[in-house]
Design goal:
seven-stranded parallel sheet, about 15% strand, alpha/beta, globular, 21 helices
């Protein structure tokens, strides 16, 4: 099975060669990313982290980086002399890590999961421990870590319904990976049950909570909020709707609902942050079709817009702070069967939250916020308008939802510390066995 995996991985890389070439020509910065993916890491970064007993955290993209940020802060607090290196898969994840985790000693792109590349990079960095953030399981990299005697730990572990179904097809490869992981620190009891059903040793599995409750990089003062409102071109007393991580098939409903909101609140503002920022121009045109005037966020940096009521957020890493200026937040990927996205960021700002009916990727968090009336569900696009209007017109409802959201965040903090203490125990055990 492992041989078949390697053959498929090699074939995929070969088939992707034309895509690599196209992006190399057209996409700024892709050359550096490609070099690192094939194991050629920046000499400056290697000098900082290689053979320094680094703690290596691997986070695929933006969402995992958000979870990684409080972990790194705790590691530096508990083990101040530790060297920390973070690897990512996506360019957005790389930019986010650079921006919100200044404590990291190095940020690199994760090598392609080919056997010789994994062995080469593992030997080059020679970390004292490798931490998988959420669901980042890579067969060859884990095998290389095991051969080098590097303990592997899953932190902030999460197994969604879709991942659970897909992993089961990996057979002996999955079994080999799970046997390599020494500790599984899972977000919830549901995640713990899933990883055990997949074959993890129950003795190695524990529930430590979700480190995203501990994130602080989005903290925004009142003065900074007013600056953001001004930068976005909205009035100080204008009701603002922020729609985060939206997908194709959702924005039409948002623009339609926004039109209804404007009948009651003519000065209302809307910020849409599409999951794929390459769709920004498409959304500007779509807004016009619904009678709204939209502008891309990047143009606001240049002062090139006037008279708009919609901002399309086409920058990386800004959404978490933009939630702070919202009167109500819609979190995307939920009106369509995508599974939803992170609702903890708007909750951390104490914002009333609306989602669609498809939140299966965040079942436990969604259930918690819903049960405590910090989050309400619009089961279809028509109800989205009703829910928005209810919150904007009912100050008592809005206030209650805000207070409940903040309370939930405060009550659930501490996962990053729990994960870090488990890491310390792991490293102490490793040191005693030397």
């Amino acid at each position: 099975m492992h041989l078949l995996y390697n053959l498929l991985a090699l074939v995929l890389v070969i088939l992707a060669a034309p895509v690599f070439l196209y992006r190399l020509i057209r996409e700024a910065g892709f050359g550096e990313r490609l070099k690192q993916s094939f194991g050629w890491l920046p000499a400056e970064t290697v000098a900082k982290v290689a053979n320094k007993n680094a703690i290596w955290l691997h986070a695929a993209s933006v969402g995992e980086i958000v979870a990684t940020s409080p972990m790194v802060k705790e590691i530096k607090k508990e083990m101040p002399d530790s060297v920390v290196v973070i690897s990512v898969v996506t360019a957005s994840g790389y930019d986010m890590a650079k921006r919100i985790i200044p404590e990291a000693d190095g940020v690199i792109f994760f090598p392609l999961d080919l056997p010789w590349l994994s062995c080469r990079v593992v030997k080059k960095i020679a970390p004292q421990a490798f931490l998988l953030v959420e669901t980042e399981l890579w067969p060859n990299f884990l095998k290389a870590s095991r051969k080098s005697g590097i303990p592997v730990m899953m932190v902030n572990g999460r197994i969604g319904d879709r991942s659970f179904g897909n992993y089961r097809y990996l057979g002996s490869v999955l079994k080999d990976m799970l046997q390599t992981v020494v500790k599984f620190c899972m977000q919830s009891s549901i995640d713990a049950q899933y990883i055990i059903k997949l074959g993890a040793d129950p003795q190695r599995v524990m529930v430590t909570g979700n480190t995203k409750y501990d994130q602080t990089y989005t903290d925004v003062s009142e003065e900074e909020q007013q600056q953001l409102i001004s930068q976005y071109g909205f009035g100080r007393h204008t009701p603002i709707i922020v729609a985060g991580s939206t997908h194709k098939g959702e924005e039409e409903s948002l623009f339609s609902s926004f039109g209804e909101v404007r009948k009651i609140f003519p000065q209302a503002g809307l910020v849409i942050a599409p999951r794929d920022i390459q769709r920004a121009d498409e959304l500007v045109n779509m807004a016009a079709d619904f009678g709204h005037k939209a502008v891309k966020r990047i143009l606001l940096h240049k002062g090139a817009a006037d008279g708009h009521n919609v901002v399309i957020l086409d920058t990386i890493g800004e959404l978490g702070r933009v939630y702070s200026i919202a009167d109500v937040v819609f979190v995307g990927g939920s009106l369509i069967p995508q599974g939803g996205h992170n609702i903890l960021e708007p909750a951390a700002h104490g914002k009333p939250i609306i989602v669609g009916p498809h939140m299966f990727n965040f079942k436990d968090i969604y259930a918690l916020l819903s049960d405590r009336k910090a989050c309400i569900t619009a089961k279809d696009p028509v109800l989205l308008t009703d829910k928005l209007m209810n919150i904007l017109q009912d100050s008592e409802l809005s206030s209650t939802m805000s207070k409940n959201a903040r309370a939930i965040i405060e009550e659930n903090r501490g996962a990053a510390r729990k994960n870090t203490l488990q890491l310390k125990m792991l490293l102490e055990k490793k040191a005693n066995n030397l």
